[in-house]
Amino acid sequence: MKLFKTAVDNAKTHDIIYSLCIAAPAAIAQAKQFNLPEIIGLTGGDLQSDANLAGKWIRNNIKYKVDSFENQNIQLPSALLKSKIGDCKSISLLYLSIMEAAGYNGGFRFAAYRGKNFTHVYNFFCDNNNFF
User: Fold this and answer.
1) Cβ atoms of 58 and 66 closer than 8 Å
2) Angle 6-7-11 from CA coordinates, rounded to 5°
3) Using DSSP, how many helices (H) and how many strands (E) does the chain show?
4) What CA–CA distance (Å, rounded) separates 17 from 110?
5) Rounded to whole angstroms, what are the CA distances from 43 to 76, 98, 116?
6) Which of 68, 80, 94, 112 is the most exposed place for a label (fewest CB within 10 A)?
7) Rounded CA gap, 22 and 29, in Å?
8) pLDDT value at position 118?
């Protein structure tokens, strides 16, 4: 089980963004190692269908629980699949890793809900024809 800590305690938005980007290659490698696209049934040929299928699988297997503002930990897929509880950072990292392992390109988007601090992260994915 691997837990990826943000660069500093009481992480700020830029620390979280940086940490997610640094953690992404290891997360994608874990998704490939665990054969998550195959387990979920992704085809690698239909972005919208695969994104919906992966999202449903995550919702059925991981409980969403918000981290406190003081405790901003990022779980790699191995840790998240074991704990089965994570916040938007860890869930978005898992979603990205599954879709990238299936052959899609994607990334993170951050949304601000508290002043100038970004407090939520979600994913986007694209292929040659679509953006989802």
Assistant:
1) no
2) 65
3) 5, 6
4) 8
5) 23, 12, 39
6) 68
7) 13
8) 59
Contact 85, 18 (CB under 8 A): no
Q: What would the pLDDT profile of 54-111 be if each residue is shown by its tens digit? A: 999 999 999 999 887 677 788 999 999 999 999 999 999 999 999 999 999 999 998 8
Residue reference for tokens 């024809």 = 129
pTM above 0.85, yes or no: yes
pLDDT tens-digit map of 116-131: 665 789 999 987 766 6
Evaluate whether 124 touches 109 at the Cβ level (below 8 Å).
yes
Q: What share of the chain is helix, strand, coil (3-state, %, to 5)?
A: 45, 25, 30
